[in-house]
Structures
1.
Amino acid sequence: MPTRDQLLALNDELRRLKAGGQRAVAVTEESLAQLRESVAASGSEAVASAAPAPVAVPIMTFSTESRNEPAPRVPAPSAPSLPAPPPINLPEGDKPARWNHLRELVLHDSVCRARVFAGKQVVFGVGNLDAAVMFVGEAPGGDEEDQGEPFVGRAGQLLNRMIKAMGLERSQVYIGNILNWRPEMGTRNADGSQTGNRPPTAAEMSYCLPFIRAQIAIIQPKVLVALGKTAVDGLLGADRFKTMGAARGTWHSYADKPLRASYHPSYLLRQEGLTSASAKKIKRDAWEDLLAVMERAELPVTEKQRNYFR
Ligand code: URA
């Protein structure tokens, strides 16, 4: 049965898809049964009625105690429309000097700042400036805009475990996002927190793309890893691949660097504890992606790592 964390992650994802305009998701009979079981066990409202597998289930979110709390709401700050991305002129100098200059530029960028609610932060990349592997995610979520660092919430904890499984520490890689602010849902709670996440729009991504490109130019990683379809769309073009499955399993190129597409940790979180063949395949595929990345980055690969899923 899904854990509370998995239900929360699913809840976030459904809200994200709904905000992006998706009206239904395909769910197998097996998953639906597991959801009904856990929702019944938690005493919350049920999600959907029975249907043959796979079925299209209208997107609804189910609540948990913490999400149930009525929160006072205030209107979100009205964001002006997006101008052209700013020109980036990196100074001469070593990597830290160039990276610090870029970081200051992004953190003080008026367009980024206008989209961040009071008390929240613009989020710039973090990590080793000599990293062989650079991960590129989608956009900050609640934990990230609080702490001003990419991937520090539940998805970040899974990313940390994935990095460890590769034989690395988080401090040895570089982690950035396509977008430098948390996409605005339109309303904020009185304390500035926001319920739910949505994927960045194409206009938002194209505004921030020069920032991630400049980070790549400074760090010069051996390999880029695009985490999730939004990162793939942002870096490689929205029309290139219909699905994540179509994008992964092969090498692409971005900013003259080899790029591997893999599943977003939030998506992988939703597979945790699931024993269906498709959930197992998704986890195995994600690991195969990381093995390919390790090989391309010339990192050592042990027999144990190679046989992890065999
Ligand atoms: N998801 C992302 O894509 N990036 C983050 O920084 C956090 C969650």
2.
Amino acid sequence: MGSTDIPFRRGVRAKAVYQEPAPRLDKDNPFQSMMERFDVAAEILNLDPGLYEYLRSTSRIHITSVPVMMDDGSLRVFQGYRVIHNEVLGPSKGGIRFAPDVDIDEVKALAAWMTWKCAVVGVPFGGAKGGINCNPHEMSPGELERMTRRYTANLIDVFGPEKDIPAPDMNTNEQIMAWLLDTYSMHVRRTETAVVTGKPFLIGGSRGRREATGRGVMTTTLAAMQRLGLRPEDCTVAVQGFGNVGSVAAQLFSNKGCKIVAISDVSGGYYNAEGIDIAAASAFSEEHEHSLEGFPGAEKITNEELLALDVDVLAPCAKENQITSENANDVKAKIVVEGANGPTTPDADTILNEKGILVIPDILANAGGVTVSYFEWVQDRQGYFWTEERVNRRLDRMMKRAFDKVYDAAEEHGVAMRIGAYVLAIKKVADALKLRGIYA
Ligand code: GLU
């Protein structure tokens, strides 16, 4: 962190603060963790060295300074990123996250994961991701709006309905997408709804988009239960993370008859052997500034205790690097379903596999979000909007189909589902690239 005192605006002495993210330890580096899995799949596919080089490379990296006038009159400059990993299957697609630890390695990994995710589930997009290094919880709505608008304006030539289409991710929501849509539309002098997905329904959003990622988590888990001969009503579930993915997944699991024995958020874990009333937990969190702190329907446990619970299903729906070589041995669940991107490290993967735990990998398990983003983009371009039933029906069908393909690919190659998913995805993008050829 460094700061310079500069005279600014009507005598206010403002501080320009530059945030330098703490360097990541190698074992936590999400790009490396993505590449380790990529390498295993590339070997199975016997991927040509040139194709290997091409598919592991990032197509474009945009880093932009985002200056924002804060409410107190000071100026702050945030670091913004947009990384396009690959566009072979179509325009690039991926969310934007606001978080204090956003850095280039994380955004690069997340962009590549989007490429594989879109390929696994069969939507015609390439992969991208964006982010701003900031602490959105300390910012007012006005500051967030100015930051979002300036980030969008800086990247105006990158975004576009046929080029690169952002969406929500960690700490971003429908309102942020609405500001992005408006800023883009003002610049191009027309309302361009298809430039962003995950926006409010009133301005071109899709029914069911908000619940889509959690719904995909539930659908893929039900498919896994079926393969393992488990009945949802006999299963206990622990969900890590109570944001847009975790809270919806927990509710949908509960609707299917599963018993949710534990949930968590940044304030800690909450356990009730008799089952937690998810609707009550959601209402409580809503009323308490999105925190479960003090939730009366459960006893407090730690995050580590939650991951080690003797449950049938463990759903890490928070963030990267949660199940590691340090705690993977303690995991007792039969199914781990990755609602978050990258919650399991490669070392932990090996341990979970040896324990015979079925891991539904992130690039499959959480692909429901981008699937309904695709539906939203289609609806915007047609100007014709579907009912929630139609959205959910098509989502369930696509997720179930993707699950079966990945499960079968894993069996065929004698590998874990994660590697099966990478094999399918890499092969699809490689085949598409061969058809398109290399423009010289
Ligand atoms: N951020 C979500 C993800 O990681 C959704 C991306 C999108 O809809 O484009 O999959």
